[in-house]
Amino acid sequence: MEHAPNSFTELMELEHHGPDTWLGLSPNYAWGRIYGGQVIAQGLRAAFETVEEEFVPHSIHAYFIRGGSLDEPVRYEVDRLRDGRSFCTRSVVARQSGGAILNLSCSFHVQEQDAEIQTARMPLAPDPEDCRSRENDHMNLILDRR
């Protein structure tokens, strides 16, 4: 990983850099900072590298801490919080020399057969303009009391 990535595929190719740690590079964006969506995608990719292949992303929460620099790679440190039979949970911290730039929490789930869903038809209802109004009901109550 010596050059800036030229495609999305290259952008998602992280370099393994020790136990549960990966490095990611950035293109030279014209605005001078790393794109936040890229850091999230690379963080999710790093987490994905730590789960078995039958697991797919189920939920993701990302918290930006500070802007990232284009001058150095991003280090993704994955913490394996839980490994279950059907769910896995990971926490990822994206770091540069200035400290953490992103904190990511994600859950992975084994794909299962969808639950059988029964749908009930809603009963037919009158159009709103054909319904009794509360104003008319109140007026009828007043008139009935006379």
Characterise this structure.
This protein has 146 residues and is of the alpha+beta class. It has one domain (8-111): Thiol Ester Dehydrase, Chain A (Roll). 19% of the residues lie in helices and 33% in strands. It has helices at 8-11, 36-48, 134-144; strands spanning 15-16, 21-24, 55-64, 74-83, 87-96, 99-110. It has a six-stranded antiparallel beta sheet, with helices on one face. The protein starts with 7 loop residues before the first helix and ends with a helix. The mean pLDDT is 88.
Give me the count of strands: 6
Over all CA atoms, what is the radius of gyration? 26 Å
CATH class: Alpha Beta
- What's the CATH H-level homologous superfamily? Hotdog Thioesterase
Structural class of the helices, strands and pairings?
alpha+beta
Quaternary structure type: single chain
Give the CA-based shape: elongated
Q: Do you know the CATH architecture? A: Roll
* Tally of separate helices: 3
Distance between the termini: 89 Å
Spans with pLDDT under 50 lasting ≥5 residues?
none
State the CATH topology: Thiol Ester Dehydrase, Chain A
The total domain count is 1
Instruction: State mean pLDDT (0 to 100 scale).
Output: 88
Order of helices and strands: HEEHEEEEH
Q: Please list the strands of the largest sheet in the order they lie side by side.
A: 1-2-4-5-6-3
- Percent in strands: 25-35%
The biggest beta sheet is recorded as: 6 strands, antiparallel
Summarize the amount of helix as a percent range: 10-25%
